Amino acid sequence: MLTDLLPAPNLLSATGLACRRGERRLFKGVAFSAPAGSLVLVGGRNGSGKTSLLRILVGLSSAVAGSVAWCGRPVATDPLAWAAQLFYLGHASALKDDLDAAENLELACSLAAEPCSRDARLAALARLGVAHRAGLPARLLSQGQRRRVALARLALTHRPLWVLDEPFVGLDAIAMAELGQLIETHLMRSGIVVLTTHQAVDLVVSRRIVVDLDAASLEAPA
Amino acid sequence: MNALVAIMRFELLLAWRRKSALATTLGFFVIVASLFPLGLGADPQLLRLIGSGVVWVAALLATLLGLARLFAADHEDGTLEQLRLSCVPLPLAALAKIGAHWLVTAVPLCLAAPILGLQYGLSASAIGVLVASLVLGTPVLCLLGAMGAALTLGLRAGGVLVPVLVLPLEVPVLIMGAGSVEAHMNGLGAGPWLSLLAALLIVFVLATPWVVAFALRISSE
């Protein structure tokens, strides 16, 4: 099913990742190997470096040591090609306050070179329950609604790897269920999802990999 | 390619939605250039002599106004991360943003310059040279300013730091720009000065985007 969209086999692996923020060393020796269809849950207390790990995975930050590989090839050799394999959603939703929801979605899609029709965008917004707000400037949206607009990208992207930083924060129960469903569908299509969350997420997944940064931490836990 | 066009298009659209910011730049330019006759007295001979220099200094300061925020908004709302992960190489994306910024801030200045030139009693041909020098020079100012904005991104005193960093580097552009009009008025011909400005523009268009991209990567690491 849809395997032609996602050339198999997807495999995300990390070896010996270490991260330093200024003088502070956050973690070292983080390693995992996530085959197609895996959900990678990055856990750890506040400040343990979850966001830093995600940024290293997608190539926004560089690791002090270690490497990330996609399908066996190190990703650092061709950052542009690597960026074309993944969808990243950080803490900030990357919405422009003066653009409306549909325009924000269009901008995000064109930046990723994943053009889509206006109908597809509206359908994606409808899926996340913000279609009725499609024409409103993003600055008038609530925090949860902004998050929903950003997450509507998930319904449009064909990228095999999703890297989501706290995607469930600020969402109500309905939106959380919808996001959960999007993630489950993506995993079923042999995609890979890496996410950080503090909430207990109830997802039906065949393969779950937990990366505990507290175990890789270099400081005594508080 | 489509993504580049999209970056430009949405930059222009965003600028259009924040029209007041653009009007501020233009208003600043006109007011600064109009203050000098008030301070120096209305001697037509003197005004004709200083006209080109005053308009150029005003243009230089006006382009600095919006530049400090060129990348700051993208940095804060997360768009910069998405730009770095987009299918467009970051130098090209930066060039598209700078180009859009030039279109919406500097082109109005170039269009308003003839009126200020008249105010200083410049001849029609001198006004032509002034506008030509501004058209060639303001993109260089924007590129230099973008470099400063990228380098100071995320710093608390960034907004104040940009002029201090960038103004000394903009001196050659000012000298060439104002010099071209002066040379023309002295009957020496503005050609060499304008050629120099054009050469400077080509060098900066080719080199600056890479410096900006490098600085953006460091600042948003």
Domain module count of chain B? 1
Principal-axes geometry of chain B comes out as: elongated
For the largest beta-sheet of chain A, the strand count, sense and barrel status come to: 5 strands, parallel
Uncertain runs of chain B with pLDDT below 50, 5 residues or more?
A: none
Mean pLDDT of chain A: 84
Query: What's the main sheet of chain B like?
Result: none
Secondary structure: helix percent of chain A: 25-40%
Shape of chain A: globular
Number of strands of chain A: 9
For the largest sheet of chain A, list the strands in their spatial order: 6-7-8-3-9
Percent helix of chain B: over 70%
Structural class of chain B: mainly alpha
Provide the fold topology.
The complex is a heterodimer of chains A (222) and B (221).
Chain A: E1 11-21, E2 24-35, E3 38-43, H1 50-58, E4 65-70, E5 73-74, H2 79-83, E6 86-89, H3 101-111, H4 118-127, H5 143-151, E7 161-165, H6 173-188, E8 192-196, E9 207-212
Parallel strand pairs in A: 3-8, 3-9, 6-7, 7-8
Antiparallel strand pairs in A: 1-2, 1-4, 4-5
Chain B: H1 2-17, H2 19-40, H3 44-67, H4 72-77, H5 79-84, H6 90-119, H7 124-151, H8 158-185, H9 191-219
Key features of this structure:
heterodimer; A: 222 residues; alpha/beta; Rossmann fold; 2 domains; five-stranded parallel beta sheet; 6 helices; 27% helix; globular; B: 221 residues; mainly alpha
Short structural description:
The complex is a heterodimer of chains A (222) and B (221). Chain A is an alpha/beta fold and 222 residues long.
